[in-house]
Amino acid sequence: GLSFDFEGRLDSRPVHPKASVPVALPENSSSAAVNVAPSYDHSAATVARAERGRSFRQNVYRNWLRCLCMKHRDDENDRFCSSRSKLDSIPLQSKERDRKNEKDTRSSKVGPIPLDLEIEILLRLPAKSLMKFQCVSKMWSSIIRSQRFVSSYYAMSSTMRSHRFIIAFSNGESAKREDKRLFIFSSSYEGEESSSSLVTNLDMTIPSVTVISFSTCASVHGLIGSTRSGPFVVCNPCTGKVTMLPCSGTHTSFGYDPVDDQFKALTQVSPYPYQEPNVLVHEVLTLGGGEPSWTRSKVTTPVYYTATRKLCINGFVYFGAWSPRNRIDPVIGCFDVRFERLSFIKAPMAVVCLEGESILIEYKGKLAAIARHPYKPFHSFDLWILEDVKTHDWSKQTFKLPFSLGLGTNLTSPGINKAGEIIFAPKCLSRDVQPFYIFYHNVERNDIRKVTIKGIADDREFRRRYGLAGDCCVHISPDHVESIASI
């Protein structure tokens, strides 16, 4: 179906099958070309025509070969593509993957992470991880230790992270000083409302420190301060840092000023009997913001005896007290952490018991006291709430429990949880190896649920190793916020 014109060009016009085709065979062929008669004329004109015919036939032959080669090449390409049609997807996918990887490589070659984004990432990390990441670079160490970052971390922990349930106790007063230990356990509140048990982990062990029933060991703005006499211990369970401050007084209060972002300790230095009959001398230690600085201040108020544990609420440290000369006028001591002023609030007799069994708690952001008879079965209690600090106005609510929780003198209350349930817990560990338990009382539904605390008193080997006995007093902070602050 192929023909050529007399100029040697390819003619695309179809050729009839019976038509003659002016195609020449090779010169060494024994057959003559189709429709070409042999010539025996040897004249010059004949020779010239023969040369022209031979040249023409050669051109036609070359063009024919060229067309055959082109057609053969096209056929081979078609067959090759057809045979690889089922396998083409693999190299195509590979090419797509290579292009994607190249694109990802180009996109990954971005500039450094902005500093604001780095800070946001660091704020969402656990406290223990941040302590390790201080070794990454000087810049990270400077960021993590800055006061602005510490404050932002605490604010995020207050709103986004689960608060911790802190339990602190020592191995008793009977232990030798070199054998004394303060153990701090913690547990997460996740799933606490529907769970019948909490699993604790040992966060810290502080040597040569002990706490008893009258000691203060409470959580204040992410730190825990503990003292009865001797060194004042401040620790952070999240970072593991411990600071011991020398305090010469017998009673020390630990508070936090949210306005100036400062921790302060108030210690009573006047010995018994008092040198001045109407004056108590206190020292105020300002912590943080550089080197600790001491300031002395005198309080010209009637002499008092501290009757309860200390409690810090919104920049004020409260404690129950009474005067040895006029015991019919119980008061609540109120130390303003920011302005370093100590004042007194009149309180009902039931709020400050002479036996030292008063329980001060924070109830919905206000100071409250739980009053119950210490030597009778604990089946009811009165909740006194300080409604107005300026007018010394108190309100009272009486609650009856569904069943008795035992002898009142064996129980205390560390406060409430997020759901508003009042927590009751034993003052000391049991003498026998058995789980420690607490009670949650819902005042609206008037029901009680018992929650077992696992991991603090049910390990026989742990109790034997550290000499835990029945005189191990327990201190609970139910709403501890994770912090990276240090003194």
TrEMBL record:
CDD domains attached to this UniProt entry: F-box_AtFBW1-like (cd22157)
InterPro entries: F-box-assoc_dom_typ3 (IPR013187), F-box-assoc_interact_dom (IPR017451), F-box_dom (IPR001810)
Pfam family, one: F-box
F-box domain span: 107-153
Span of the signal peptide: none
Record's protein name: F-box domain
Organism per entry: Arabidopsis thaliana x Arabidopsis arenosa
UniProt lineage: Eukaryota, Viridiplantae, Streptophyta, Embryophyta, Tracheophyta
